[in-house]
Each structure stands twice: as C-alpha cells, then as structure tokens.
Amino acid sequence: MLKEQLRKIIEEAINKKIQENKLGNIKSINDISIIIEKPKNSNFGDFSINVAPYAKIAKINPVILAQELQNALVSKDFEVHIVGCFVNFKLNNSFYNKALENILNKKENFGSNNFGKNQKVLLEYVSANPTGPLHIGHGRWAAMGSALANLLKKSGYVVTQEFYINDAGNQINNLAHSLFIRVLQELGENINFPSDENDIKNFYTGEYLIKTAKEFIEEKPKESQQIKNNKNFDNETKSLLSDFAKNKMEQEQRNLLNKLNVSFDSYFSETTLHKSGKVINCLEELEKTGNTYKEDNALWFKSSSFEDEKDRVLIKKDGTYTYLSADIAYHIDKLKRGFDKLINIWGADHHGYVPRIKAAIEAFGYDKNSLEVLLGQLVNLIINNEQVRMGKRKKMITLEELVDEVGVDATRFWMIMRDINTTLDFDVDLAKSKADENPVFYVQYANARACSILRNLTKPRLDITNKNTLPPLFTQTEINKITSNIENININNLWNCDENEIISTKNIIQMLDNFEDLVLSAVKNRAPYMIAKYMQDLASDFHKFYSNVRIITQNKDLTKSRIALIVAIKIVLKNSFDLLGVSAPESM
Prior knowledge:
Elements: H1 2-19, E1 47-50, H2 52-58, H3 62-72, E2 78-83, E3 86-91, H4 93-106, E4 120-124, H5 136-154, E5 158-165, H6 170-186, H7 197-200, H8 208-219, H9 221-230, H10 235-259, E6 266-269, H11 270-275, H12 278-288, E7 292-295, E8 298-301, E9 312-315, H13 323-336, E10 341-347, H14 353-363, E11 371-376, E12 379-383, E13 386-387, H15 399-406, H16 408-416, E14 424-427, H17 428-432, H18 439-456, E15 461-463, E16 468-470, H19 476-484, H20 499-524, H21 529-548, H22 556-580
Parallel strand pairs: 4-5, 4-10, 5-6, 10-11, 12-14
Antiparallel strand pairs: 1-3, 2-3, 7-8, 8-9, 12-13, 15-16
C-alpha cells in the first residue's frame, strides 16, 4: 500500500510533466516502468526511483529530468531529495498510519487480491501411482500444491484440487503379481521374487506389501486359501489382488495426505477414462482433425506440427494404448469440464511430456497456454549431516516416516521454502530442532512472542528500581476493546518516541505493508516459497524490533499504539501461515 500510494503520486507527476512537454520522447506513462526501491542508505529516505532509464528514453540529462519530477512532486505527506539519478522520498507519519490501519481493518483479508478474476483453475498435483507408499518427493508436491491452491484462492481464482490416480496399465498387473508372492510367503510357501535383474524390474519388492499381504489374508481368508491351493496367478487372481492392493494403497495415500493437511476436491481414476470410452473417443476426435496417421500398424499423433520435437505413438502395433493416449484424454476432459486454466505439478523428469500435452491441447483447438506445468526438482534427505542415498537403503524412508519424525508443520514448511525449480536439502535434525537456525521454529516463535506480549499486558509488572510489584497496565476488557476496534487507538501516538524507535517502527510497518505486493508477486510466479522467505524476513525484523523497542511502557497511549502494531504483526504472520498450511502456535 505504501508503494502503491507513492506510485500513483509519481504517475500523476509524470503525466503532468508529459502534458507540459518537459519529458522529451516520453509521451505516455506506458513508455516507462516505474520501479520503486528502498535506498541502501536509509538516511536518503524511505523509497526511491532511479530516473536514469527514463532519461535514456527521454533523451534528457537524468539530473534535469529528476529536477523536473521534483518540481511536480509537491506534497505535505513526504519530502523529496535528489541524489545523482535517484529521486528519494521521505514519507511522513500519515503514510505509515494509513498502512497500519489498512492491515488492522482488513484482518484475514489483508493480502487478498483479484488477480485471478474468478478464472476456474484445475490444479493437479501428487498424482502418485497406487503401487506403494508416498515417497519424499510426493511430499514436496503435496505441500507445494496445497500452498499454491491457497495462494490462488487468495488471489481471486476459483480452484479445484485434483489427484489423478494412475490405476491402469502394466504397473497394476506387476503390483498384483508382487502381492501374489507376498501372500504365498505369508502362508508359508517357499517362493521368492525372481533373481534375474531384468525380471525383478517387473515387481515391487518393498516390505510394505508384507503388511498388505497380511491384511489380505485376514480380510479374505477363503480367497487366500484358494491362492495357496492353486498357486496360479491367473486372470481371476490378478483382478482380485490388483483391486485389493490398489484400494489399500490409495487409502493409505489419502490418509497420509489428510494428515499432512492436504485436501483434494476430487480423485480422478485413469481406469474410468478407459471404461467410459473417453480415451478411444478422444483419439477418434483427434483423427477427424487430420492430426494422426498410421505407420507400422501403429497410430501416431502429428505432435511435431505443434512444436513437439517429434511425432508420438498413441496406439502401439499390438493394439495397446500408450500412456500418452490416456494423458491426452485426461487433459481434454479437464478443458471440457469448463476450466479456464490447468496447472500441473510434475517431477522434473517429466519435462519432455509438456510439449506433447500442449501439442494435443492445441490440436483440439484450445489455447496451449491454458496449461501450465511446474516442474519440481528432487529432495535430498540429510540425516546426521550426511545425504541419505535413498536407492541404496535396504528400507526406503517413506513420507509418512518423515512426517512422524519431524511433524506436519516442519515437513510442510521445509518442503515449501525453496523454489520448486531447485533441489531441496531437507535437514531432518535441523527441522526437529528448537533453534533459530530452523526456519519453521524461527517464524513460529515470532508468532508466539507476539501472543506472549499481548498476554503480558494484563499481568502484574515488576518495578525494577524499587523491586515492587505493580498492577497490570491494562485489564483484559481494555485489551479486548483495543484489539477489536482500531478506532479505540490513536495510531499517531506511535511517533511519540525517540528517533531510533521511530526508525525501527517504520521498518517493521514497511515490512508488513510489503505483504500485499508479495502475495501478488508470488501468485503471478506460482511461487509459494516466496511466502516462506517473506515470513523468515518478517520474523527477523520483528525480533530486531522487539530488541530495540520496548512495547509495554509507562505511557499507556504509546503502549496502546504499539499494541496495534503487535496485532498487525500477528495478522500478517497468521495470514502467511494460513497460505502455507502451517499452524501459528500462540505459545512455545
């Protein structure tokens, strides 16, 4: 809000000088980009703009251009100073009062915007195969996806979160065959997985299926006995075991996602695409557009006509569908359901798939840019200062084990706090620690500190000089009145203090005020990590403010105004925590 107020004033000044024909080749405000920054030296002011880029366009000496702007920037709300190519602004207290009042008035709506303009978005993420427990990477997509959903909703999008279940194909047959072996093992039969390296790739040998086998034997004793007697992995047995395994894996995945505070609006099964005829109908529709051809008894998609590097097979020569066929049908189905924007979170290893799906979307007559794909990098698990090489372990560390070890809040915050395009080093020991170096502890402690300050307002005080106990400065009724309505507070009392305290107060208000711009920037870049980074910076500034400024003073009016500031800090922290899906503890 501070920057936006200032931006409007600067734009008015520039327009005035354009009308006076004082800005050379600059004929419209659209000819330039106004970038408002904070000066490196706070003595220069609160904000500044560099006019050198404007001068280059205008073909005017930058010092002369700066002076022209200074002449037009006349206001009682700020002072203007020129240093070289920079026009610096020192804001008066009224600017800061308005910024603080804006936060206190909007409360949980502070940071909301209408950037999305009610566009309908389908956000698909995690979408794990129902062949085993969720792994650490799934946890990153889960936390990132749900945080992005919160960010989109706060920015005016209508969001549906969907989990695509890849429950068709040979992987499900392999799952059933693997469970078949585990069931027989649990029933005392001498049977093992193949020892050949090529054959073993078609099985899921993880110990998690031992638990599933035990559940099958307990829940289906009759069928278990038949399997033991026949020892035949026929189609009936395959169907029975695949359905059982899929259902168990899916339920375990859903339970863990719920535990991680990740809620999907819908679960979409790949199997339903095939059973409903949507896959074959989709391919027939694609053929009618002339964007397919047959070669070597296979059906090909002319994806190279739509900026893909080569054409792709849709139906193999043996008559079976490729994964691409179902994926195309799924994405076209999304668009036919009326969504304006499709956002997928995929692992970086799927980067080659993006142009294929975009090509299909364009071939069906939709805007290829209706699909956005966020490609996420891997997670490295660090334990005892050493990276855990997941593929070399006898027993894989699952996402559930990580959540149980460090907690939901730490898991979510750590998974979100880095750009999705970068590899994340998840330090398990640090994530569990109660130290300032642990970012989630650091920001949660900031919120707990703010709550503690408000609690202490109604507690007896110690007179350090006389060693006497003094009565509380406020009653709970007074605090409730102060915090419920800002009209009960004279914000202007914030400035009845020494210069160092004023500087600290302005710094923290600037940081709070930045939240609105930050949310807008984060949603534009689809970058929830920016919220996590902001929270760490805000917590740092708040801890510094707490060290420099005494909140509870003998001056009740000054204390009241600082209470308002603490409440604003709580509001912004809580709104940030809500975006990330992390709790905001009031005590620690």
